[in-house]
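User: Second chain of the day. Same drill as before.
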Amino acid sequence: MSDLPPDLPRLRTLETWLALQLAQVRQRIAAAEKREEEKQRGAEARPPQPDWLLESGLNRDAAPVAVHTGDCHMVGKRARGVPRDTALRALAEGVEACGHCRPDVELGFIDG
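Assistant: Same format as last time:
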């Protein structure tokens, strides 16, 4: 036994309702595809993560307070990417190496 109504007016009404529902589903699919495309474009346009980070003190002119690897989760908001030689120079000048990511080990820096 079918769940569909037997008469033409109700079948036409059901057809109209289903067409409207299908249009809404297609709009949602299009919006989801657009979000995914934008997310992908954003990921492709993102600059590469630096290999080394130099964390600054509270004052803009303050000396650096720590050296981190580029993927360290303990780095503060006042850090900037630096090249390898700058990170090594900072360690040689006494800037503290992060105890979590251990950039001194990654850089092969031997104190002393």
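The CA atoms of residues 28 and 34 lie 10 Å apart.

User: Great, on to the next one.
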